Amino acid sequence: MVAEDPKKSLKLMEKEMEVTKEKKMKKYKYVAPDGGWGYLVAISTIISFSTTTAFFGTFGMMYDEFINEISMSSAGVTLVTGILCISGALSGFFTSALLKLMSMRWLAFAASVMFAFGTLGTVIMTSTFMFYITVGICQGVGFGIMFNLSCTVMNDYFVEKRVLIMSFVQTATGINAMVAPIFVKWSLEQYGSKGTLLLIGGLSLHNFVAVLLMQPVQWHMRKVEVPESTELKLLLEVNNDVKKLDTPVITLTDAEGSPTKEELAKAFESEEKSCFRKVVEIFIDTSLIKPFLLSCVALGPAMCNTADGLYIVMVPKYFYSMGWSQDNVAMAITLYGFGDLSMRVIFTIVSKWIYKLGIRNIYIVGIVLAVLSRIGMLWSSTVLTTMVYFTLMGAAHCSIAVLVPLVVAETVAPKKFTAAMGICLLLSGTFSFGIGPIIGAIRDFTNSYSSAFYSLISLYALFAVLWPIEIIVKNRKLRRIAVKNCESSHLNKQF
């Protein structure tokens, strides 16, 4: 046996110790999967969106026989849709508060039960009151919670691929929405009204499969190494916008152990809070009221979605008043869907460049396109040009409807996304309930669809002007803050 050189063995031991030290010195962080189980979550979102929203456009076809059977008035039908909007808005708004009481999957399961009860309940309903309960309340509450949770889960699982996957999900949902009227028409011919409602109720049970796929993102987070430069930057970065990201800033006073002004202010504020305010904060994230609720990011999409919904409901009647045939009206609605679906496909293809252009900027372009296409439609004198503008309206609808979760995700921190989406849903429901009757009154008072459409166009135009102004003002404010931070850091270095 040859004896080992003690110097070599000592060097080996030193190297091993250095390697272990390096491993201990390395820092790691958990990041979103951006794939893996996230693809199954995307499928669950397609299921959720399709079962809860795809058949909204076939409302009249599905319930026409029941409405005629009980001799329900137009005001009663309008009230059902109003209750549906308000129920969805309120349940979506309180989703963030409900997540404090139960886990995400249990809440999604409860919402799925509620929605299934609403869809299957329509099979046995016999009165107006049951119609309000099953369609208005049960389906509305289930839809609001499931929509908010689906957007939240997608936001948690995807960061770099968020635009690509969300565009794919919305494209698949759009295809299902286009197939839904064909399916309902076939089902009504084969099985009648009750059989069709039973089939749609059965499809809604697929939400339970979606809930099973919605696993918490913590189970699938990726562990990545933090580079030294990034680690140092995270520790020393001073950014006034840091409140939005909930990232603590290490300052000299923190290191010395003395409280900062912000900590003292928070301590005094917590003591002064009334019981009522504490109860309110359980249900509402008050930190979002001033920076988010009163911004164009919340008000703009809510108002534009409301105007979009009212527009598509009134347009067929406008076409009939112009003497269009049923085939031309059907073709126009098909082209609207084609424009919407085409834009969803385009978003999927160019998803890599959307972040570079800015999601809010693209959303504003969509609003401008909505204004121009609607004005062009009103000024058109032929069926062909009207259909061209109507197709562009479908493309504008895609950017207005599809990009809302992405606009919200770009604006708020991930922890506040559910609450922010809830605020958007609440505003949409409130605007739908309040603005809808006003637009209808303008149409009845003037006896002209054009006056009602110009009123809706003014709502789009309002945010097409205000939103860019808000972005410019905020960017200038951030530049001033950055300059002040640079000056203060330069002075600190001198001292």
TrEMBL record:
Any one GO cellular component localisation term in the record: membrane
Domain of life where this protein originates: Eukaryota
Protein location: Membrane
Domain Major facilitator superfamily (MFS) profile: 37-476
Membrane-spanning residues: 36-63, 75-99, 106-125, 131-151, 163-184, 196-214, 292-313, 333-355, 362-381, 387-408, 420-440, 452-473
Membrane topology reported for the UniProt record: Multi-pass membrane protein
Record keywords: Membrane, Transmembrane, Transmembrane helix
GO molecular function: monocarboxylic acid transmembrane transporter activity
Keyword Membrane in record: yes
Keyword Transmembrane helix: yes
InterPro entries per record: MFS (IPR011701), MFS_dom (IPR020846), MFS_trans_sf (IPR036259), Proton-linked_MCT (IPR050327)
Protein name: Major facilitator superfamily (MFS) profile domain-containing protein
Lineage: Eukaryota, Metazoa, Ecdysozoa, Arthropoda, Hexapoda
